[in-house]
Batch of 2 targets.
Target 1
Amino acid sequence: MKDVDRRGFLRVAGMSIGIGALYRTLPAAAMTGSANEMLTALGKKSGEKVAPFTFVQMSDTHVGFQGPPNPLGTKAFEQAVAKVNALPQRPDLVLFTGDLTHDSEDKDVHAARMKRFREIARNIKADKIVYVPGENDAGLDGGALFRENFGETYYSLDHKGVHFVALDNVSRAKPEVGKEQLDWLEKDLRRFSKATPIVVFTHRPLFDLKPEWEWFTSDGDEVTNILNRYDNVTVLYGHIHRDNEHHDGHTAHYGARSLIFGFPDPQKGPEKKPFAFDKEHPFAHLGIRSLDERPGEELRKDEIELTLREMSGVNGVQQMLRNPKI
């Protein structure tokens, strides 16, 4: 089983959207020997056929947000949906890692924002779309509105040889997963071998990235201790509105950008203050990140800015702001 490593499991293909990434997994095609035997056994156990597939992560759309850091509202989200739909390969899965909506203490307003999110998200051309809540979706009502729209806030699914786990670290009174969910996670993973490819998607980081900015999960260590019993675990999360990569034991953690505004590097930024809106580059810090990884080569990263197409530039943005229907 030693020849199954993260790089062997996850391949990044084509372009990735600033709010996440398009991943191509090669759970069977790139592996031989014991690894292939393990994946075949996994497929038999889960009933899923092991095969290569692609998936996209999206995060922090904050539908309903209004403020100086992003006067364009949902335009970046809509542009990202168009980019996903234009990809040369239709993704099997789209994972939303929380803060689908911007919170509101008015239940009707919050419900209207959730409805608007669903109207945009339903345009995505993908075989399956799955969600976890962010604190803006579930902090005020313990996840009630989220469950009305999307079902349970934590669950798991198998897909072509990979086990996906959705974790909820926002619906409780403090930023934690909680004992009930920890017990469920233990039980859920117990049926798999150590080498099983596992992708966890959640909202807050499971490690102490910047606790004073609320970038942490209080019982994240307990979650990671469970995950580190497995050799091939990837955690995808949102909340921090910027890229971040962190490794803890066998577990690799990746943060995704937001679709509403970006935050500075916590190691360099003096305070948690969104980047100011730039009319020349309206989607700065939200743009496209193209990742290309090939065997034996360094991971190549290219930052590509989302554009407003014919409405790009200062004049285009001003015209858009005058006419919200554009």
Target 2
Amino acid sequence: MPELFITEYGVSLGKKSERLVVKEKGQVVEEVPFRDITQITIASSGVSISADVIRECVECGVQINFLTSTGKPYARLTAPSLTGTVITRREQILAYRDGRGLYLSKCFVEGKLKNQANLIKYFAKYRRNTDTVLYEDLQAVCRHLENALQELEEIKGDNIDEARPQIFSVEGRAALQYWGAVALLLRGHVEFTGREHRGAADPVNAALNYGYGILYGQIWGAVMLAGLEPFAGFLHTDRPGKPSLVLDLTEEFRPAVVDRAIVSFFTRGGTIAMEDEKLSQESRREIARRVLERLDGEENYDGKKHKVRTIIQMQSRRLASYLRGEGKYRPFLTGW
């Protein structure tokens, strides 16, 4: 059990010896050794957690995340000692003004576009013999994404500020094609007219936004463990309270983790219940289960199979190494 996900109202978390004790309505429903947990995510109101649990989590390196009912992270508890090396953060700040920031920004978008294409190819291969029209339409989208990659490669500049408008232009036009392909895949299963961000009240966008919130939590933790500053990004602009580097690194993992989990859920007949234009508690629990399963799925990385959640940690360390001048950064690419 690498991650404990709490979605029930009224749950209490306590400590007994070296175990985390989860209670509902005063009854013990789960006891887990702290050493078997890597993260606790609390995604419900009315949850209580004892100071003993917080201290034990800090000492065992267990991160505690808090999400709103729409999946937006609003708090994180970690040990103050998890700040990594000073050199990494110094180089991260300096990289914004030189070619490293531009290089990394292009890598993040390159990874996103390639993984979007790979996800479309993944779904297309199962429809090659059953729906040739849809298969050809999906192949056409993949060609658009490949053209976008060529445009991205040709973008030049001395730093990210000079090139950001061009990068976002390429990424935005590719997104229209990609989400159009997702709409084709979901046709006949659930209504989806296009991508909307925070506040979306339709089932697909609400599920995607909730899944991205879970992914942010994973990447935020990995970024901090790698000694990086989560608020000092490159592709995403600076803004108080905006974890720009977390958003940057999330780009290459969105299609492989959340999009794949959500599209598979709906195309296999899954349904979502909405309450007051938000996901119902049962739907939040189901989406969390699907995304966490995907994080525990395996992908190739450096020639070996690893869990996706492990790859997120390795990719964060690779980013830190690149900034320190100790290695090359390459985007994570999923298989299809």
